[in-house]
């Protein structure tokens, strides 16, 4: 083991200081290339101690996302573009976005007005939860584990928010018809914007519904839901970034299962006999197991990470109807 310096001879650690005290003009005159701005933004984000989890998981990835988003560039650009010099207005936009991200703690997708889900861009703002569900992997695979022969004919995206799950499903499964349902008029307005953006209005519709209350008599081959599921303890300790998202889309009672219980109790009435229910419950998976120990939930695994998504067949919902009553 190498010898260490004594405390009397050690050099004091370098104290990093934010450069945000500089004016925008000073910053934009000192930084020129895209590479300069990615490095600078990453440094400032690291110093600011931001929380990540709305599409990125580190200061560096968030800096890349901010700079590319500000310049309307795709993730898979040629690395040579990093050395391109930016126009003054482009530099100013990046600096302004970085300041806003640090000073307001607003999640980056809200600042950009856009988030990607299953490789598809969606309009987002504070009216809807930011897309980040691991269900994206199931969509990209066409829900083949449950529908190996033919895709589901009718799909319900329950508690749809921005419409990302249902619209992405329609894009990956071009023969499926999709219903987007949500209790929030504000969320449905965003979902309709995304229906228009992706030109899927011939197969995708958005309806107002408090869980299943607005879907009387309708049945689906697949019901997918990312409902509110955050328990009271997690909700109270969430970082500032999450407090910009609509509370209606996050909290669901002391154990996070207020909406999930309603879904389990009513889903069978709206599933075809060979249908499937897929629901994300995140960290509240432990509460689901504790509340329904006799139910054989299929807990899904994901290559890109994520947890707390279960699947149940219509037959299993029938077999355990008494547990959900």
Short overview:
The chain has 325 residues and is α/β, with parallel strands linked by helices. The chain has 13 helices and nine strands.
**Overall pLDDT confidence:** 92
- Helix % is 25-40%
SS class: alpha/beta
* Outline type: elongated
The CATH topology of the largest domain is given as Rossmann fold
Features:
325 residues; 13 helices; Rossmann fold; 7-stranded mixed sheet; alpha/beta; 2 domains; 14% strand; two-stranded antiparallel sheet; 9 strands
Task: Tell me about this structure.
With 325 residues, this protein is α/β, with parallel strands linked by helices. It has two domains: 24-112, no CATH class; 118-324, Rossmann fold (3-Layer(aba) Sandwich), CATH 3.40.50.150. The protein has helices at residues 24-30, 34-48, 59-70, 88-104, 108-112, 135-140, 164-172, 185-197, 232-236, 258-266, 285-291, 314-319, 321-324, and strands at 114-117, 120-123, 154-158, 177-182, 204-208, 220-225, 271-280, 298-299, 309-313. The chain has a seven-stranded mixed sheet with strand order 5-4-3-6-7-9-8. Helix 7 links the parallel strand 3 (154-158) and strand 4. The longest helix is centred in the N-terminal third of the chain and has 17 residues, at 88-104.
